[in-house]
Every structure is written in structure tokens, then in C-alpha cells.
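Example 9 (inverse folding). The structure is encoded as follows.
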């Protein structure tokens, strides 16, 4: 067995396979709610429309990496946390 196969075999697999968009949506919504910020306030801070933020959170809107960065910055959360599949699970279990 190659080193790569060994490493891949030992990596934890998420219990439910979510798309990158679903992970971002869930983490964004959860981070916003934990900070008690409305979609309107988040949109204002990120210089985006409230409708756009709502569509991103619902998963119905595709989002660019630039806008992901704007939203992360507006929430004062590292972008890597918003795309981390384990972040949602860990935070969801605490609530």
C-alpha cells in the first residue's frame, strides 16, 4: 500500500457527504446566527444585497470566492472555518 493510500485510509470521512456549497451555506448561517447578526446587517457589512445573502445561505445561489471572503470578513471569521465540513458538525453539537 502506498503512503498516499495509507494517509487517505486514515482520514476521517464526514458522516454525511455535503457539497462544498452546502458546507459553506450551513457554516455561514450558523456563524451569522451565533453572532446574532441579521442577514440584512451581514449584507450591509459585506456590501452585498440581503437577497443575495439569503440565496447564498439557502444554497440556491452559486457564490464566488471573492464574495465568500467578503462574508467571512464581515463576520470576522476565517474563511477556512466557513468551508470546513467539521466546523458545522462541531458547532451544531454545541447548540
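The amino acid assigned to each position is listed next.
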Amino acid at each position: 500500500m502506498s503512503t498516499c493510500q495509507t494517509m487517505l485510509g486514515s482520514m476521517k470521512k464526514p458522516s454525511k457527504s455535503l457539497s462544498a456549497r452546502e458546507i459553506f451555506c450551513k457554516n455561514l448561517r450558523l456563524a451569522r446566527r451565533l453572532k446574532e447578526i441579521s442577514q440584512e446587517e451581514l449584507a450591509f457589512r459585506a456590501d452585498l444585497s440581503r437577497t443575495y445573502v439569503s440565496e447564498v445561505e439557502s444554497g440556491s445561489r452559486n457564490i464566488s470566492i471573492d464574495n465568500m471572503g467578503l462574508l467571512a470578513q464581515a463576520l470576522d471569521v476565517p474563511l477556512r472555518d466557513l468551508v470546513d465540513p467539521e466546523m458545522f458538525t462541531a458547532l451544531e453539537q454545541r447548540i
